[in-house]
Amino acid sequence: MPIDPDAAIRITAFDWVPDFARGQVRDLRVRWALEEAGRPYAVRYLSQGAHKAAPHRARQPFGQVPTYEEGDLTLFESGAIVLHIAGTCDALLPPDLAGRARAVEWVFAALNTVEPPIMDHAVATLFEADQPWSRPRLPAIEARIDERLGELAARLGGDDWLDGDFTAGDLLMVAVLRILSDTALLGPYPHLQAYVARGEARPAFRRALADHLAGFTGAPPAGFAEWESELEVEPALQGELR
Q: What does the domain layout of the chain look like in residue ranges?
């Protein structure tokens, strides 16, 4: 669905992030769910720093994006928002109780089991790349990621989706695996690579990604150039993301 400034649903997103974060900020997950559900939405764009100010903290106590507002309902946490959207439509959850429970199970598996070591890798190779502990931690982090990917690949097998038709569980699992897109870590798992590609080929994802990327019209915050230059002191660690 096209973005509609008069829509009943409003989400929050950043108006600028560094290049490496574009396509990964979690408003994309919510946009994708809304597109799958066929729900129009508006976007409240935040400049860097505004997400930590009191007006946004009233919506999101941890000062993060995205948030979701519809009438008297305000939600934060992308997983909770995706599950809420899924519960309002037939596109993201099966009609039977057992099928719905299994889809929710995969939502939690994506966010609680698969994503944490992947985010540890992002911290070590990007946000703390200049710290002395980052490089020594990488082998252990990558071993944990590989273990999880192997287990997930074994469960997926040759199936298109994790439990029959595409569900909210697949949406979030694909979103998590996409964090590894610029690494070699998915290389040993062609079935997982094909799984991610199937998710990214969905028309709803393509629309969501296009709108997500089009929203980055703001300017970087003061001091960003200095932070970026700090990342460049360890180019080999940055290479882990390519």
A: 9-91+205-223, 97-202
